[in-house]
Design goal:
single chain, about 150 residues, mainly alpha, two-stranded antiparallel sheet, 2 strands, about 55% helix
């Protein structure tokens, strides 16, 4: 008997274990199949096997859909130009302070960085390259002017 507390038995543990081994069926061919497979594996282990070299594996190449990439760049340029329009309107309005305009300047900066990242893989002869470059240059100039206090005299 197995117990946790010496006075309280939990369950009975049989004193003997069946040492006769598993029962086998004379009609079962598992033993023969297992034996044949082990012998075949031992025979194949002695033969040299070719190993694939990692250098023979080519890396995966993803092809960018240029129409999708171009349309996303056009969308980013359009959003940046819209932000620049709102910036210009708020800058020309006397009711807005520079504190009111600051969130637009931050937005223009993040949009410029996003556009710069998206367009870095664009082909040099792409028609959009000139437009993207001009948009980035104009926005960067406006951000620099704002940060350097060009509009504080307003």
């Amino acid at each position: 008997m197995g117990t946790i507390d010496a006075d309280k038995p939990i369950f009975n543990i049989p004193a003997t274990v069946n040492k006769a081994g598993p029962k086998t069926d004379k009609n079962c061919q598992f033993d023969r199949i297992l034996h044949d497979t082990v012998q075949e594996t031992k025979k194949n282990d002695n033969q040299s096997q070719s190993v694939n070299v990692a250098s023979q594996i080519r890396p995966v190449q993803f092809l960018n859909d240029t129409k999708t990439a171009s349309s996303s760049i056009v969308e980013e340029v359009s959003q940046l130009i819209d932000t620049l329009d709102v910036y210009q309107q708020k800058l020309s309005s006397e009711s807005n302070t520079l504190k009111d305009i600051w969130p637009l300047v931050e937005k223009m900066g993040s949009q410029t960085e996003s556009l710069r990242f998206s367009s870095k893989d664009m082909a040099a002869q792409d028609v959009l390259t000139n437009i993207v470059d001009q948009c980035i240059l104009l926005t960067s100039t406006e951000i620099a002017k704002f940060n350097n206090g060009y509009y504080t005299g307003k």
